[in-house]
Amino acid sequence: MTTTTERPAPAVPATSRPRRRWRPESRTMFLLIAPSVALLLLIHGFPLLDAFRQSLHDGTLINTGSFVGIQNYTDNLTSEVFWKAASFTLVFTVVGVFGSWAVGLGLALLLRTRIPARGVFKVLLLLPWVVPIVVSSTAINWLVATSSSPIPQLFETLGLGQPLFLADPFWARILVCVFKVWISFPFMMMMSSAALASVDNSVYEAARVDGATGWQQLRWVTLPIVARSTYISWILMTIFCVNDFPTIFLLTGGGPIDATNSLVVLAYRLVFQNQQVGEGVSVAFIMTSVLVVISTLLYRQIRKAAH
């Protein structure tokens, strides 16, 4: 009896992974969008790189100056003026984002009810956002600028003294923050109204049948459903608030005693008033870095809310 031994199968040579080839449609699409992408990079990328180059120099608007590296960044990060402006920017942004969101969401929920002349009411609520900021700031100045203005006179009539809103640092901060909420809540109202339009009323009917109160419906039904739209509006409003120059500059100019001096106003003063371009541009880049971090964190919340 003979035995046969099995021979091992020959090893199959490893083949390299086939290269992914572009389909003709993808290649055509790339060629069509390439000029637009190149133009956008040229329009936005070149000024950004040039601004970063200027932030590394100690020049003026006319002369680039000498190279100082990150000295402008370290000077700002160790400056009391910078951190004072940063603290007010934080307060201004938090009040602007969450204040306008709370008012906008409340009005959006109110507009879902059956109220008389709801369409006219909705149009009137958009006026603070539609009216140019120059007109709104002029009106606020007329209301509070001097001791003979209507609101100081009203305070005096009520026995609350006669506050100088634009001369007192405390009242100036409050005025600027309230004014920001006033001109921003229509945007939040529109965002909330668009999100609430997709909510089926049967969800609320089921919640009422289960005995949910109005607050519980808001907490466990409305807010989770509109969470994605809420995070998007927070990102946009955060960017609007941090970069908001006209609201503060037209109303208070950053005063009194730099009480309402935000980072964007500080950057403007350094560049165009003090001719310290490097320090001013470095402030803007620090602002941009913080905004990127905040937007990234909120964007992650959007992705979680989408699942």
Automatic annotation (TrEMBL):
Membrane topology: Multi-pass membrane protein
Annotated ABC transmembrane type-1 domain residues: 86-298
Segments of this protein annotated with the region Disordered: 1-20
GO terms classed as biological process: transmembrane transport
Origin superkingdom: Bacteria
Keywords: Cell membrane, Membrane, Transmembrane, Transmembrane helix, Transport
Places the protein is found: Cell membrane
Main location: membrane
GO cellular component: plasma membrane
Recorded family membership: Belongs to the binding-protein-dependent transport system permease family.
Protein name: Sugar ABC transporter permease
